[in-house]
Amino acid sequence: MMGNLSPGLKTHAVTMFEVGKLSDESLDSFIAELGKVTDTAEGEAKRYFDHAFTLRDTIQFLRYNAAIDPAGVGAGVDLLRCESLNSLDASTCSRVLNKNYNLLISMAPLSNEVRTVSSSSPYHIGPPVPEVNSVWLKMWMYHVTGCGPVSFLLAKGTRLLHLPPELYPYERLMITTWGHESTIVNTSNVLMALNEALSHSAVLLQAYSKRNEAEIVYVTFPFDKPETDQNDSNHVDEEAPKKLDLVNHPALAKLSNFVDFEHSCGYVTFINCSKQYSDRQDESPPICSSNVDIDSFDDWKLLDMYLGVPLFSTEVNKHTCDLLLSRNLCTEKSLIALTDSHRRLVLFLLDFISEYQVVPLAEDDYSGPGDAKSFVCQQMPGINLPPVPYPTRNLMFSTNSLTEITV
After folding, report:
1. Model-level pTM greater than 0.70?
2. Which of 195-199, 200-204, 334-338, 352-356 has the weakest average pLDDT?
3. 219-252: string of b/e by CB count within 10 Å (b at 16+)?
4. By the 8 A CB rule, do 134 and 388 touch?
5. Is the peptide bond before 310 cis (omega within 30 degrees of 0)?
């Protein structure tokens, strides 16, 4: 898609696809071409222009920035294509990465079709294993926090004769087929498309909105919680309504017991399926949590979480880059802590996946000890993991709990 934004970018797009990377030596030309892109598009095409501008700003922020380099010298930046790295065998990939790089930073969100590079050496700010960038992470988050939209994870081959009653109040639903991006569809004509998708893939079916567009808000991390003015602590107006911020949502407090929000960066998405926005551009919802006023957490549900530096929004990107510096996320001490916490997150997630598999996780994909913990401990140091496993049981998340269902 990048090559279609301007003629000058096409050469760089071809190089990225064929070679698998854009080296630091070519980035001056690449940045110059990104600067020539004119934002005249509308609708879906505008999203790609916004990504181009944000990518340019991110590259300029990362290059020769001593605060970003663990060695403290300010190194250059290469853009790497995950698919090309995954085409290498495990030992070659690890050798190439360790020889050339001090730090890997993933862009977010990575497409569900992309298998992330698993690496603890060099350090990696991003999804530690492909499962963290998959539908499984959503269901696990809903399970451990008791917070999420009504969701059905349906195994491949399942056939529905009618929609589950839990989805009747919603006019629009979100469908995610395995390894692909989500699409929003009207409830009235979803059943045929859903059964067609289930014939060749597992599917995540979720409530989206009761009418028109749901409200989506992003909370970046490390969390920047508003500070209370101690001087005004004795002058509280009890009649004034309290302003709530989604960064203080109880679900995030529960999730922080499993996810290291202090030493990583990325964003958590909240959805309000009851709040209704029209499709008119002049009534678009706020993007960051700091820009939205809420009276109650009740209608706000966790939707997803992505690790890395976001490119989809200039506002969210800038806030994340600022946090990279202000929280010293790229120092040796922080990166060591992140590597340890990533291991724990992977163990939690793979144990959850194994619990809802008829057969043990990745049993046919590797030889060695039969439990997921031994597998991860052996495989984390920079090798490719097996493909993300399909669900073999139908799961429903509703009324704050996860249950296995028969359809």
Report:
1. yes
2. 352-356
3. bbbbbbeeeeeeeeeeeeeeeeeeebbbbebebb
4. yes
5. no
